[in-house]
Amino acid sequence: MKQVDKKKGHNQLVRKELIAGYVFAAPFIIGFLGFTIIPMIISFYYSFTDFNLISEETFIGVKNYLRLFSDQRFLKSVRVTLIYVFSSVPLKLIFALAVAGLLTQQKRGVGLYRAVYYLPSLIGGSIAVSLVWRELFARRGLVNYLFESIGLDRISWFGDQRMAMIPLILISVWQFGSSMIIFAAGLKQIPVTYYEAARIDGANRFQVLHRITLPSISPIILYNTVMQTIAAFMSFTQAFVITGGGPNDATNFYSLYVYRQAFTYYDMGYASAMSWVMLLLIGAVTLIIFKTSKFWVFTESGD
Amino acid sequence: MMLKKVLAVVLVLVLSLSIMGCSNDAENTTDEVTSSTDNSSNEESTDTESSNETTNDEEEIVLRMAWWGSQKRHDITAEVIALYESQNPNVKIEYEFYDFDGYITNLNTLVAANDVWDLFQLGGNFPTYLDRILPLNDYIDQGIIDASNTTDAFLKTTQFEDMQLSLSSGVNTYGIAYDPEMFAQAGVPEPTNEWTWADYEAAAMKIHEELGIFGSSKIEDFIAGASMGISQEGFDYNFFAPSNVQLGFDDPSMLEDYLAMRKRLVDAGAYPDPGALSEITDIESDFLVTGEAPMTWVAANQLPTLAEAAGKELKIVPVPRKEANGPSGMTIQSSQMFCIAKGSEHPEEAAKFLNFFINDVEANKILAAERGIPIVSNVREALETDLTDVQKRMYDYVDLVGSFETGVINVISPPEQAEIQDYYELVLTQVIFDEKTPAEAAEEIFNFATDKFNQ
Asked: Do B111 and A158 touch (CB under 8 A)?
C-alpha cells in the first residue's frame, strides 16, 4: 500500500514537472511556431504565387524561381553578398581572436575591457549606429578629414562602387564582441602545461600559435565561422540605412533585395522565392564549411 | 565582485536603453496625441475606455489617420485635428505620421492585414490601393461632403472611372526652385518660363565653375527624364499610357538626351555624384538649403517650406523643356488626398472630418496650402487675402503651369512604377560609371519597362 502511494506520488511529481516544463518552454514554442515555422510554411506557398500583399494571389508554379536566373540585379546581389561574407567574416574572426588573446591575459581590469569591447556588438545592428557610420564616411566626415590631414585625397566612399562595400565590412568587423567572448572562453580552456612544454622545447610565438593555440580552439573557430557566416548572409540594416544598396547595386545585399522586392515593388511571391533560395544557399555554404572541417578541426577523440 | 556588479548595472542600462529605442516612435506619437488634445474641453472623454464618462450622450468615436510628410506638415495637421476634436467632443482622432518610405511600408503591411487606417493619405500611387479605398460618391450625394465649391477639373484629379476616391488635399505641380542671388553672383541670367535642358546644363556648368559649388542639387530623374521627358516629345506621348497598362511611347531614343546630360554634369563635377546624392535625405539636407547648389527640384507646394529651411528668397520656374517652344510636359495634379478605408468602422464620421479638412476655412488657414493649392474656391480666396511673398509665388506658379497647353498627361503611377523607376535610376548610374552608353541604357530601360507590363 505504501509502495503504491509512493509510486503515485512520484508520478504526480513527474507530471507536475512536465507541466512546469511546458509552461516555461511555452513562450519559446509559441514564438517559434508563430514567428518562424508558420510564416515559413506560408512563404513557401507564396513563393509559387504572384501574391502582392494587396490583391488575391494566383498560383503560377515555379515561374518565380525561373525568373531568378534571368534577373541581373538578383545575380549581382548574390555576387556582392558573397564578396561581403567572404571578406567580412575572416577579418572579423581574426580581429576577435586577437583581442580575445589580449584579454585573456591575467591583468587588472581585463573584465571591464571585455565588457567595453563587447558593447559594439550589443548596439551594432541598430539604425542609430548605422547613421553614425554613414556620417563618419560622408563627404565631409571624420574619415575623409583624417585622410586630408595626412595629405591624402578625399574619397567619395558611397559614390564609388569599388569603395562603398568597405565601410560596411568595417562595421561588421567592429562588431566582433560575441565571437571574442566565445574565443576568450576557449582560450582559457587550453591547459597551461601545453604552453610550458612548448617553452621548454624552445618554440617561438608563431609556432605556439600555429601548433597549440589554433588546433586547441579549432572547434570554436568552426562554431564562430558558421554562426558569423550565417549572420553575414542575412545582414540588412547597415546596407539599408547607409548605402540603400547603391551605387549601381554595389551593396545591394541579398536580404536588402528581398526586402525591396517585397515592400517596394510589392512582389511578395518573388521575394518569398528569393528567401527560399537564400535558405538553400546558406545551407550549402554551411555544409561546405562542415565538410572541410574534418581537415582542420582537431577533436580529442580523434575520429 | 564589485566589478561584476558594475558590469551588470551597465549591461542592464544598455539593454533597457536599446529597448526604449525600439518603442520610442510609438510613444512619441501617442504623447503628441494627448498633448494636442490637452487644450480641448473634452480631455477626460478622450479616453477610449471611459465612454460612460463622456459629457454628452453621443458614443465615443475613434478614427485612425496617417500621412507622410515633413515636420511642418505633421505640426499643422495635428493642430487641425485638435481643432476638429474641440468642435466634435465625441470624436477622437489617433494619428501617425512617417516619412514617405516608412509610410508606404506601414500602409502595405496594414493592407495585407486588412486593417488600414480609417483615413489614409495617397498620391498618384492610388491605383495600387484601389481595392481598399471607399469611394465618396454617396457621401457627396447625401451632402455630408460638400463638393459644390470646386470645379469638375479639380474633382477629376482624384477620380478613377466613376469613383470619386476623395477630394484633393491640394493641387500642385513640379518645378525648379532657385536662389537668384547665386545666379547673379556667378553672372548667369535667371531661368525663364521657357528654358530648356540645354539652358539648365549651361547654367549648372557655369555656376559650378564660377562659385566652386554644385551647379544643381538633386533632380527627380525619373519624373524629369522619363515621365515629363517623354511628354515633352509631343502631345501624344506619355511614359505610361493613360490606361496605365502599357507604355505610352515606342521610341527608346526619347530617353537618351537626359541620361547623356546627367553624365556630362556629373563628370564635370557640376552635379552631385551618387555618394553625395545619398546624403540628401530630406528638405533640410538638400544642397540648395545647405548652400552647396543654386537650384533644386521641388514640388510647388513645398516651395515655402524649402525657402524657410534655406532662409533665402527662392524663386520657382517650370522644369526645363526639350525645345523652348515645345510641349512643357507639365500639368496640374492632385498632390495628395485622404482616402477613407473600405472596412472602416466609422466611414461616415471619417467623411465628416474629410469635409472639415477640405472645406473649413479656419482649418485651411492652419494648413496654409502646405499640401498644395486648395481646390475649394472660397477656401482659396480666404487664404489669398494674406499671403507671404513666397506663398504668392507658389500660387502664381501653379496658375502659370495650369495655363500651359498640353495633351493628355498621365500623372497617375501604375503599380509597376516603383520597380521601373528604380531600374531607371540604376541604369542611369551605370551610364555615369561608363558601363553603358546613353543609347544602350535607353534601350534597356524601354525593354525592362515593356517586360514589366507583359509579365
From this structure: no
Task: Give whole-number Cα distances, B406 to A44, A67, A258, B318, B326, in Å.
Answer: 49, 40, 40, 14, 10
- How large is the ipTM? 0.85
Reported as a single tens digit per residue, the pLDDT across A94-153 is 999 999 988 888 777 888 888 888 888 887 678 888 889 999 999 889 999 999 999 888
Cβ separation of B274 and A247 shorter than 8 Å?
yes
Q: Is residue A38 part of a domain?
A: yes
Phi, psi torsion values for B317, nearest 5 degrees:
-130, 160
Residues A116, A196, single domain; the answer is yes
Which residue in A119, A159, A260 is closest to B274 by CB distance? A159
B164 Cα to chain A: minimum distance (Å):
20
Contact by Cβ (8 Å): B232, B326: yes
For residue A114, the chain B residue with the least C-alpha distance is B7
User: Which position has the grid cell 512582389?
Assistant: A267
Tally Cβ neighbours within 10 Å of residue B112. 15
Q: How many angstroms separate the CA atoms of B422 and A263, rounded?
A: 13
Total domains in the fold of chain A: 2
Distance from CA of A172 to the nearest CA of B (A): 19
Same domain for A41 and A124, yes or no, is no
- Read off the pTM: 0.83
The answer to whether residue A265 is domain-embedded is yes
Residue range(s) defining the domain that contains residue A21 = 2-46
CA atoms of A155 and B29, how far apart (whole Å): 39
Residues of chain B in contact with residue A236, where contact means CB-CB under 8 angstroms, are none
Residue A145 lies in a domain: no
Cβ within 8 Å, pair B418-A265: yes
Closest CA to B368 of B152, B102, B35, B70: B70
A-chain CB neighbours of B426 within 8 Å are: 73, 248-249
- Give the pLDDT confidence of B214-250 residue by residue, as tens digits: 999 999 999 999 999 999 999 989 999 988 889 999 9
Residues in B lying within 8 Å of A, measured between beta carbons:
3-4, 7, 10-11, 14-15, 18, 21, 104-105, 108-109, 111-112, 128-129, 131-132, 273-279, 415, 418-419, 422-423, 426, 429-430, 433, 435
**Is A259 inside a domain boundary?**
yes
Cα angle: B17, vertex B19, B23; to 5 degrees: 115
My answer on whether A94 and A36 are in the same domain is no
Q: Which of A12, A31, A46 is the last residue of a domain?
A: A46
